[in-house]
What does this fold into?
Amino acid sequence: MPDTLFSPSPDAKVHPQTRVGHIHLRVADLDRAIAFYSGVLGFEVTQRYGARAAFLSAGGYHHHIGLNTWESRGATPPPPGHTGLYHVAFLFPDRASLGAALARVQAAGLSFDGASDHGVSEAVYLRDPDGNGVELYRDRPEGEWPRKPDGTLAMVNAPLDVAALIAEGTAG
It folds into this structure.
């Protein structure tokens, strides 16, 4: 695609109920990727196409995650400093669910790249087996979001107590 600047249109507004439907990732090893997304994060495999592709979901949806090796079997992650996916974010319904997922990540021997309290959300960051960034987070209720005097968001990047989240997720 040539270097093009796009002029904003005053009518370019997405419908407010639009959501990100799913992600589809190129992976080097399908079984390894399934072990991470299903065995560690807990997504259910809804369909598999041999050793080439699989679809996973939460709650019986057809798929939230697509994985394939069509063009990437045995490949290496892109080197730092290149364009591509920064991270995919998975929204959990509450602190306990997020904490339980973090406990599974920790039990699998995986490390976190970082963790932040953004005021609007609590987020923990890690890498999948192919080097893709993964954010596991939960939103605070909108009424608790920090705001400036003019009403706009005042998101922050404060430390997050990951141990407390994990304790909450393993308490029950």
About this structure: Helices lie at 30-40, 95-107, 162-170. The chain has a mean pLDDT of 94.
